[in-house]
């Protein structure tokens, strides 16, 4: 059975599942908790009684019920804790402090060189500085990276765009910070955030597709992130889409990949070649040109959208999600992508899938880091054990081991 938060927690995860639900949904009645987590009313009553006694949960006001006495709402106590989220890029690290309900309390940005010999040590220093400034109970640290991660629990990273090969991000940070650390692909972290605060509340199987510097995809099946055998599932930017002629190189080392054509660098290269923008023009320059009605600029985006539509249709046929969420820096110009995307995407789908919804979400830069923090905040629902010992340590810090 699957519910809005994902699979029903194992028996040992029920207390933390209740805490996580109250954190992400706010004050909730015992009956609603039972329905959301697929638990019996008796189990919810016993578990919440224990959580109240331990000072983690408190009873709030009563609300009218459909017959019988009014239902009492339950809520988290004020100091339930916060998570730190860090998004690593090729030139900076974005860090946010996030409350259990997803509210970003603070954000900062630090210059960063991932190619330096001491890059991971330096990352630990940045995070230690952020942790030292906290005056709340820290539940753990989530780190999102643009690459493959063997497992959230271990955190060994292969990220060609950062120059990392088998980089021991998780072990190094845990030793430096003395706190639970979970690491995953950055698009998977956005999928985790959707599970807690967005589409994942109403759908158990969905895709989160990002457009921007690269093209990524987080895959959620039956409420859990599908990571593949080696943590590399969802790398749709490296689907080969062309095989003839002189092919553009991709950051992965291959040629003719989807990302090489419609990632930001590929779009800019095409736009410069067609003189839609000047030799120093950027993706922002191209968006401005399209906004003013420049036909050449609009055509570059429309062709990128058409290529994305065809590739994504193939992913739909493979995974069969309920809904697709589009986000990332590139959605700022989505109106221009869409002219090519929508007809190409729908035309390429099988008849039974032609109506799959595509939701475009507004984008802010701190969403990457907020997604990373969600790796920590999903620990109460980690019935599949993706976070291993690190998720258990987060639950201990919540007071719900």
From TrEMBL:
* Annotated HTH crp-type domain residues: 20-75
Give any Pfam family that matches: MarR_2
User: What Gene3D superfamilies does the annotation carry?
Assistant: 3.30.420.40, Winged helix-like DNA-binding domain superfamily/Winged helix DNA-binding domain (1.10.10.10)
Q: Which domain of life is it from?
A: Bacteria
GO function terms (MF aspect)? DNA binding; DNA-binding transcription factor activity; kinase activity
Instruction: Enumerate the transmembrane spans.
Output: none
* The keyword Kinase is assigned to this record: yes
**Assigned keywords, A-Z:** Kinase, Transferase
Tell me its family.
Belongs to the ROK (NagC/XylR) family.
| The protein's name in its UniProt record | Putative NBD/HSP70 family sugar kinase
């Amino acid at each position: 059975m699957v519910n809005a938060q994902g699979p029903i927690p194992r028996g040992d995860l029920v207390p933390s599942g209740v805490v996580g639900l109250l954190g992400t949904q706010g004050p909730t009645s015992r009956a609603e908790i039972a329905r959301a987590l697929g638990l019996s009313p008796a189990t919810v009553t016993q578990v919440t009684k224990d959580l109240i006694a331990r000072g983690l949960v408190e009873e709030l006001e009563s609300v009218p019920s459909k017959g019988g006495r009014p239902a009492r709402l339950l809520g988290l106590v004020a100091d339930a804790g916060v998570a730190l989220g860090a998004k690593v890029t090729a030139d900076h690290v974005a860090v946010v402090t996030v409350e259990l309900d997803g509210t970003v309390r603070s954000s900062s940005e630090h210059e960063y060189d991932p190619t330096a010999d001491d890059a991971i040590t330096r990352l630990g220093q940045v995070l230690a500085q952020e942790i030292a400034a906290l005056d709340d109970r820290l539940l753990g640290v989530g780190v999102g990276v643009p690459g493959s991660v063997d497992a959230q629990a271990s955190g060994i990273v292969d990220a060609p765009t950062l120059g990392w090969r088998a980089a021991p991000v998780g072990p190094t940070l845990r030793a430096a910070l003395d706190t639970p650390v979970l690491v995953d692909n950055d698009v998977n972290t956005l999928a985790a955030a959707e599970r807690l605060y967005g589409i994942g509340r109403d759908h158990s199987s969905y895709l989160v597709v990002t457009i921007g510097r690269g093209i990524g995809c987080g895959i959620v099946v039956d409420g859990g992130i599908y990571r593949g055998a080696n943590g590399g599932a969802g790398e749709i930017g490296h689907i080969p889409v062309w095989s003839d002629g002189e092919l553009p190189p991709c950051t992965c080392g291959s040629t003719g990949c989807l990302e090489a054509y419609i990632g930001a660098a590929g779009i800019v290269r095409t736009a410069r070649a067609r003189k839609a923008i000047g030799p120093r023009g950027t993706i922002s320059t191209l968006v401005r040109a399209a906004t003013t009605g420049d036909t050449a600029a609009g055509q570059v985006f429309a062709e990128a959208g058409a290529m994305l539509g065809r590739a994504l249709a193939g992913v739909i046929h493979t995974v069969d999600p309920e809904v697709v969420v589009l986000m990332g820096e590139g959605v700022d110009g989505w109106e221009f992508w869409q002219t090519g995307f929508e007809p190409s995407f729908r035309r390429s789908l099988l008849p039974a899938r032609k109506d799959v919804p595509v939701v475009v979400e507004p984008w802010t830069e701190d969403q990457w880091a907020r997604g990373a923090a969600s790796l920590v905040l999903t620990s109460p629902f980690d019935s599949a054990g993706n976070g291993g010992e690190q998720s258990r340590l987060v639950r201990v810090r919540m007071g719900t081991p």
